[in-house]
Amino acid sequence: MPISFAEASLPDRVFIPKICELLFLPPMFAIVDIAGFQEKVAQGDTLEVPRIVSKDGQKLTLDRVLLVVNGDNITFGMPLLSGATVEAEILGNTRGEKIRVVKAHKRKRYRRVHGHRQQMMKIQIGKISV
Q: Residue 61 domain-assigned?
């Protein structure tokens, strides 16, 4: 049974986050382009992204914001939002999963195996501002 905003007896500032929790959406989130990857972020989220800067504890400002959703207010850019930023803090540097690249030519006794581990950093999302 759908719930309409008109039937709600709670004030809007309390009711909208409850609806967002029911829909499994945070009350405010953004889609950000980080090193060529588009990530959906909300305040307090922890992400592993390709390494950009290598110092732990350093503050990072992500200005390539594609979309910001704040409750019912949806703001999107074509392709980027001007003036929108997401602040993040670097928690540490890690390495991604090992990828094995195998080259082989059948019937020629040619076999090569190369491994690769991507340099990653763990970040925690702070404030999202439009």
A: yes
- Does residue 52 lie in a domain region? yes
* pTM to 2 decimal places: 0.70
Between CA 128 and CA 41 the distance in angstroms is 9
> What distance separates the 2 farthest-apart alpha carbons in the chain?
76
Q: Each residue of 15-44: pLDDT tens digit?
A: 555 555 555 656 789 999 998 899 999 999
Q: How many domains does the chain have?
A: 1
